[in-house]
Design goal:
This protein has 145 residues and is of the alpha/beta class. Helices cover 18% and strands 30% of the residues.
Length: 145
């Protein structure tokens, strides 16, 4: 009887938990070209730790910049993004020059070697759009194969 109560309690806790990365978002999937960048003056401007939206970049954090056409598709500032081949959630914190289309730039702090090794690749991303946004489609991130 005691084990049943403990089991019921544990299950109740598990099912009542809210998973913060999914709550309030629906998830869209798309293929983009991904490059990498660093917060160094020669790659950005004279103040390389400040994004186009005014956010401060902190090496070690998971940030991306997006091409402006992707902003129109829902990848606005502070959008959560899952990138195939990368662990965890990345956050949209910067926007790219208008010449780029269908592209993300993955922030790699000051590790230029790592950014160069990454190069340029096609990747699939999933991005969360707040549920009250009319551009939403799916309700959960698609499970990885």
């Amino acid at each position: 009887m005691k084990q049943c109560l403990i089991g019921f309690f544990v299950l109740s806790l598990l099912f009542s938990c809210k998973f913060g990365t999914e709550e309030g978002y629906t998830w869209n999937k798309m293929e983009v070209t991904a490059t990498a960048y660093n917060s160094l003056a020669y790659q950005t401007n004279s103040n390389p730790h400040i994004t186009a939206w005014g956010d401060s970049l902190i090496p070690g954090r998971k940030y991306i910049a997006v091409s402006r056409d992707l902003i129109k598709q829902g990848l606005v500032r502070d959008t959560p993004v899952l990138i195939d081949g990368f662990e965890g959630i990345y956050w949209v914190k910067d926007k790219m020059h208008p010449r780029w289309k269908n592209r993300i730039d993955i922030y790699m702090g000051v590790d230029v070697k790592k950014a160069r090794q990454w190069g340029r690749r096609k990747v699939t991303i999933q991005y969360g759009v707040k549920m009250d946004d009319p551009t939403t489609t799916d309700t959960k991130p698609v499970a990885e194969n």
